[in-house]
Amino acid sequence: MKKQSVTFWIGAGLAGVILLFLVIGCFWTPYDPEAMDASMKLAAPSLAHPMGCDPFGRDVLSRIMDGGTITLLVAAGTVLLGAGLGILIGAVTGYFGGIADTIFMRIADALLAFPSVLLALVVIALLGTGEVNVVLSLGISFAPSFARVVRGEFLRSRSLGYVQAARLAGASPVRILFVHILPNIRPVLISALLIGFNNAVLSEAALSYLGIGVQPPKASLGSMLAESQTYLFAAPSLCIFPGAVLILLVLGFGLMGDGLRTGRK
Amino acid sequence: MAILEIRNLNITFSDKKKPHRVVENLNLTLEEGDRLGLVGESGSGKTMSALAAAGLLRQKNVRLEGEILLDGQNILTCTPQELRRLQGSRIGMIFQEPMTSLNPTRTIGWQVEETLRLHTSLTSEERRKRAMEALRDVELEDAERIYNAYPHALSGGQRQRVMIAAAMISRPKLLLADEPTTALDVTVQQQMMELLRKLNETYGTAILFISHDLALVRSLCSRMLVLQDGKAVEEGASEKLFTAPEQLYTRELIEAVPKFERIERAPLKADAAEVLCVSDLCAFYPKEGGGFFRKKEKKEVLHHISFRIRQGEIIGLVGESGCGKSTLARTLLGLHRDYTGTVSHTAKHPQMVFQDAGSALNPSRTVEWILEEPLRNCTDLTAQQRRECVREMLWLVKLDESLQKRYPQQLSGGQRQRVCIAAALMLHPEFLIADEPVSALDVTVQKQILALMQEIVQETGVSILLISHDLRVVYQMCDRVLVMKDGAIVEAADAEEIYKNPQHPYTKELLRSAGADM
């Protein structure tokens, strides 16, 4: 493994800490994230509730640990689906070109013309709300941008000597695409994945904020932010903590991507 | 006073943990009207010296010690403003790659005028006049059209002329030419050298000519300085250095320059079987443009080509860039499908050795993986057997076994080309195409690779179609030569015959450019 830049490691550290925090949340939270306690309504941060309580008296720390996991899973699912579709389409269209390329890229153009949240809204309107549908809708709307990046790289690689050599060495097209070329576009792909991950986290938050993502009483970082805005002045901690976790997570992955991009020659 | 004087120059790169010295204790003096050649192999520090002399190396991670006096002013210590003024008025520089050293989004005229715009107060009319003059000076016909054209509309030779025009427009006292002809065809190369000499004689501009090609340096420069690993090895008059080199390294360099000398080898067997027969081959490319639904028009790029290759034979294919050499190679290998005529192989797996070994090897795989790949695809050998084959092949191309765990970028240029040759030979092909296999390599390495290819032919009986722009290389290596121009073969004969008794005027021109005595 090549040595990475300082930026990358700072990003990895940030993301790592938040991830660890969220992973713990899968197994253990200080309180039941959905248990209400009327006496603790909008309680300020204290030793018992380090991040305070929400309007229903639920512990914010527990809800972040629990809801952050959902945000994370949705983001990861979105990126996997989007990148999977994108790589497949991008690789095939970039390498083979021709009529398939023209058709797929025009479809991608059309999809890219819509804001991804708007596109996701349409899909959710058709399929209904819920995490799986959020993943599906965001994944599909993310695929074109991945396809674009991947296609460009394959187009560039197609004429390189080593690809020609692989053809002469009797490698099948599938093998050329995924064994010969794909590992070489890894740095670009990783950057794209990390940026995509960030966008997915933010998009999920946006959908939940609009009330069509994760449904109550379940929490996600976005839905918590949405709830907090009514109490922005009464209980600022409600938006500060989920917001901070979101920012740190996105910043961490952003720095990692940045470090990878600038770190390679 | 000397135009350029370099005293005790040390250049050290410190971007890694360990400082890396690329130039050590370099001294050189260039008087007005001088033509000095700086020769050496890649990595000898010749380009770094030139960049330092142009004041382009004043960066954070580069330590420069010593003195570089340009017209009496030390460019290592002067202020950035002074440096810019000096760069604009005293130095012109031309680079190796005319494709990338012109800005694709600006017209030629704009770029040629740029120096004047920055360093003089001429009006746009006067600037235009000077630019046209400069373009005519570099013998560009139709200067009017070229003034308004964009770089992509020009050929490589024209672009390099434009670069020279841009460098010369402010009448600099010093012209730094860093391998200005390496990317050009031989015939164009010769014209460039004449142009440089003319400019030098007309305007008294001193030229620091950097090249790995000793023959070129000899034809232009009165003096030359040989560099090895950042140190000056020998300096003196070109003729003297060529005829009586004092240092061993200089002698090695001079001996490695390809000459019209055949490498001796056993004659072909009289009953050698035919491995490739091409007859009446025409190849097509789709024409540029054309709509989505309109029928694509085709352009014929190869015209009625016929030849055959027998077992163990090396055939040379010479011609300038764009003449269709590579298209022919790709067609023979089945990489280009749009053709008429017949190509019949007996070879099961025809292979290719590429010009740029750097891009021909998958950068994310080890040497071992790359060499095993053809076996993995086309044979049923076990992993154990495959590794055995790889070891044998490494031995054949004279590479150490320890290199097999390395990645291509950890190898030198010569080693990479050996790996390419090994990869091409893994399936024991009967027929191999080598597309400019040595043109990206240093002369000493070039010599080794050519010798290796000869040996391999002897050992394995493989037939080679050797594509090259260098007639000397072809003459050394080949039994027969095909001369190609504009997609057609204009002359085909034995190598001896081509050299002694060329028929076609184009062949004669090529021979002359390659420095054959005629």
Tell me what you see in this structure.
The complex is a heterodimer of chains A (265) and B (518). Chain A is mainly α and 265 residues long. Chain A has one domain (3-26, 60-263): MetI-like fold. Chain A has helices at 6-27, 60-96, 98-113, 116-127, 131-158, 161-168, 173-181, 186-209, 221-228, 237-263. In chain A, helix 2 (60-96) runs antiparallel to helix 3 and helix 5 runs antiparallel to helix 8 (186-209). Chain A starts with 5 loop residues before the first helix and ends with a helix. Chain B is built from 19 helices and 19 strands. In chain B, the strands form four sheets. Chain B has a six-stranded mixed sheet with strand order 6-7-8-3-9-10, sandwiched between helices. In chain B, strands 15-16-17-13-18-19 form a six-stranded mixed sheet, with helices on both faces. A four-stranded antiparallel sheet of chain B has the order 2-1-4-5, with helices on one face. In chain B, helix 7 (186-203) links the parallel strand 7 (174-178) and strand 8. In chain B, helix 7 packs across helix 19 (505-513). Chain B is globular. The mean pLDDT of chain B is 85. Chain A binds chain B through residues 102, 160-162, 164-172, 175, 180, 183-184, 186, and chain B through 292, 333, 335, 349-352, 354, 356-357, 359-365, 373-374, 377-378, 420, 423-424, 426-427.
